[in-house]
Design brief:
Layout lengths: L3 H30 L18 E8 L4 E6 L5 E5 L3 E2 L2 H12 L3 E5 L5 H4 L6 E7 L4 E9 L5 E6 L4 E5 H12 L26
Helix pairs in contact: 2-4
């Protein structure tokens, strides 16, 4: 007759054997459930937002928009006309450029006529407070319309987030001129009437 202690030992061995056989399967399931995140691409520019002193965008049709930060850190529209700009709008565009979301790095680059880099829609120049420049070209919208092809000064082609690039394009299409408030009449101030010509 088998002793009770022997049965206990056999049961313990069976449990240990089951653990050894099943543990790799559980690990595989856990690995599938929590895939490792894909590392995001870093923006290709070395300037921080606060270091940018000037942003210049030139369209393929020659349209030029240039904004410059003054000594009070307010943005001024230099081209097409020297006007005070909506600083918050410009700061948002600059931040979107510097912290641009790059969706993919195209290596080797696609044919220039496909990406639109051979005849770029826009050329963007970023200048920092020391006068150093960084440039990139904006090409075509991708076939999936998720982003735009851009090329940096080193010749590398990326697909950049659609909305980051369109904020730059909108800067050219709709320069952020600050509205001048219409002066209001003080109470009791006479209103000058413009005489109408007699018939």
């Amino acid at each position: 007759m088998i002793k009770r202690s022997t049965w206990v030992m056999l049961a313990v061995l069976a449990v240990l054997l089951a653990i050894v056989l099943l543990l790799p399967k559980f690990k595989g399931i856990e690995a599938e459930a929590t895939p490792s995140p894909t590392p995001s691409l870093e923006a290709p520019f070395s300037f921080s937002v606060s270091e940018v002193a000037e942003l210049h965008v030139i369209g393929s049709d020659g349209t030029s928009v240039k904004v410059k930060r003054d000594e009070s850190s307010n943005w001024k529209l230099i081209e097409p006309d020297e006007e005070v700009s909506e600083s918050n709008n410009i700061e948002g565009v600059v931040s979107g450029v510097i912290n641009m979301n790059l969706l993919s790095k195209i290596d080797p680059p696609p044919p220039a006529d496909v990406s639109g880099i051979s005849t770029p829609s826009f050329t963007v120049t970023i200048i920092n407070k020391s006068g150093d420049e960084e440039k990139f070209l904006i090409g075509n919208l991708t076939p999936t319309s998720s982003g735009y092809y851009i090329q940096t000064a080193d010749g590398q082609v990326y697909v950049a987030d659609k909305y980051d690039i369109e904020s730059v394009i909108d800067l050219v299409m709709n320069p952020p001129i600050k509205e001048t408030p219409t002066p209001s009449l003080e109470e009791g101030e006479p209103v000058e009437m413009i005489p109408t010509p007699e018939s």
